Amino acid sequence: MIDNTYYNEADHGPHEIFKLGDFPLNSGDTLRGTKLAYKTHGVLNDKKDNVILFPHMYSGTSKSMEMFIGPDRPLDPEKYFIILPGQFGNGFSSSPSNTPPPFNMGAFPDIQIGDDVRAQHRLLTEKFGITELRLVLGWSMGAEQTYEWAVAYPDMVKRAAPIAGTAKTTPHDFIFVRLLEDVIKSDPAWNGGFYTEPDAVHVGIRRHAQVWSVMGVCQEFYKRETWREVGFSSLDDFNRGFWENWFLPMDPNNLMCMSRKWRYGDVSLHTGGDLKAALGRITAKTFVMPFGNDMFFPTQDCAEEQAMIPNSELRVVDSLWAHFAMFCLSDKDRQAIDDNLQELLDTTVK
Amino acid sequence: MIDNTYYNEADHGPHEIFKLGDFPLNSGDTLRGTKLAYKTHGVLNDKKDNVILFPHMYSGTSKSMEMFIGPDRPLDPEKYFIILPGQFGNGFSSSPSNTPPPFNMGAFPDIQIGDDVRAQHRLLTEKFGITELRLVLGWSMGAEQTYEWAVAYPDMVKRAAPIAGTAKTTPHDFIFVRLLEDVIKSDPAWNGGFYTEPDAVHVGIRRHAQVWSVMGVCQEFYKRETWREVGFSSLDDFNRGFWENWFLPMDPNNLMCMSRKWRYGDVSLHTGGDLKAALGRITAKTFVMPFGNDMFFPTQDCAEEQAMIPNSELRVVDSLWAHFAMFCLSDKDRQAIDDNLQELLDTTVK
Q: Which of A98, A174, A247, B117 registers the highest number of CB atoms within 10 A of its CB?
């Protein structure tokens, strides 16, 4: 069990822990001594009808999404009870990095998005007695969890905002994510997931960051040197200072746990492979929000899924930051996302 | 000196060799005992005005482009004298794999696109006495050579068809190609370019093929399983049977020699970095032919360059095969390319 210092509450803020014990996984495996780490903002009202659930993306923690929460923002903690669940593998919830032997590191079981969402459902129902979610939203792998929520628990989810993600991982996305995994494993220090310390695999993690640099934003972003707007001085200053800096402190097995969930993300597991039937279950008012120029969740892929969701609209947010518009490094991106979320929250639903 | 059996005339057809001796490179280095391997089709007429020059792409040889030559095709050997020069690093022209020590393998000097084109110019002028090119065309790195020809020797080039390539490598393309190189070098057997045999680096080459699988075609190609149309049975059957199969027999240093030229391709080296001035030199009637959905030579990048070329037109060929439309695995792609080439050849120029 490696205690990676990156995953600490001084940097990521305090978490609550919901204990799930031995948690049965969709695969048939069991996640032993399961912990679901989460954060909350605001107060649950008496009717328990002011709940927003906001799971996070690959490589993130619950803290990653807190930048969207504020008294003058759509996600207003003075009005809503906002729950930020940590996905398995994020270093706070059960993860390869914090699980004791023999299920630690490279021996951590394979998890599915559906496992995360079932665990989150238990947190909401057992711990808080919540039966209704005013909004579920998430970006990237957070969008995958959002779709899973809307399909698995349609009666609970009143509004959904899957942002720059898909309900079923596309084949192109599958090979992109597999490449992300393969370049980490290409580092001899990886050693089947049993490295001496996380930083020993830093060359693999740097390579993984390089794949992100090619696919994470868009061609035009680099041509216009948009990185200058956020203080970088050269292509490589950005390449290392942004991409490598983000991923380097993380635990390689944790990343691999999350990417594997991403790679096999598929709500049609609920309907024998019928995606249209799965998405047809959604009753939530849904804003499908792709980011323009996204190279692995292209607008077209998101639009095709949106067309299968009964009460949905397509809301494209165009940005040269492409998939990373969610980082809100441009005020315009933040405003466009907020405007859509506000409109969705203001929509009357049954 | 490794004699890779892949580069043999039984498979790639007979080549002529033009000897350039000790060839001074743009970098200041010297390429010793320089050989330019080439093929020709058709007969040079008395006026020497029926010449078409057709350099090839990354990872290819002169044979790669021969599928465009035929009596019922625009590149008709009964009308034209068609020269297919092999770029340095292709395994037939001077390459890391066929150069004797001490300049072999990882010690082979860095080459630029401009070096290739100067060598080709010497072949055409010294060997054949050619002063006029009816058409220069090329795909991908062949397009880069086409642009270099049109900028360096504007008086010679009457028509130009740069297909799915750019005159100056964009920053996004730069990091994509650098990633291609890095994943080869990630293989411990690479050993700074001094591997025991080319196949020892097969894991790096496979990884390199995986990057191609993510960037070489487009998202929609995979979603529609377009690979079924050419006989593959699954995503991985295609991933290995197409991408890995193409690259596996090649010499890693040869690939690296070509990719480095690609990464630094830039006609504005002629004009102190002024791309508009460089492209403004072109007098050839030029059809800039990007392929729709190309992820590393996007139409927009090609269109921006086309706008700087005086006597040019933008001709987009749309295909789910994206950058690999040039393989003509769809008849529609072949026809669209041929139609444009025929129209360009039929255009009257000064």
A: B117
Residue B5 has a pLDDT of 86
The answer to whether residue A231 sits within a structural domain is no
Q: How many structural domains comprise chain B?
A: 1
Distance CA B184, CA B169 (A): 21
Residue B209 lies in a domain: no
A220 domain residue, yes or no? no
- Other CB atoms within 10 Å distance of the CB of residue A152: 19
Looking at residue B58, what DSSP letter applies? T
Residue A223 placed within a domain: no
Count of beta carbons in the 10 Å neighbourhood of residue A188: 13
The residues near A8 (Cβ < 8 Å, ≥ 6 apart) are none
Contact (CB<8Å) B172/A223: yes
Is the pLDDT at B3 greater than 70, yes or no?
Answer: no
Q: How many CB pairs under 8 A join A and B?
A: 90
Instruction: Show residues of chain A in contact with B173, CB under 8 Å.
Output: 219
For strands A81-85 and A51-53, give the pairing: parallel
Active site residues of B: 140, 294, 323
CATH number at residue B156: 3.40.50.1820
Closest by CA to B16, choosing from B39, B35, B33, is B39
User: Hey, what are A340's tokens?
Assistant: 């859509």
Domain with B301 in it: 9-169+266-346
Residue A295 token pair: 């190279």
pLDDT in tens, A238-268: 999 999 999 999 999 999 999 999 999 999 9
- Entry pTM: 0.94
Q: How many Å apart are CA B124 and CA B153, to the nearest integer?
A: 12
pLDDT at B134: 98
Which of B219, B243, B295 would you mutate first to test chain A, the one with the most A CBs within 10 A?
A: B219
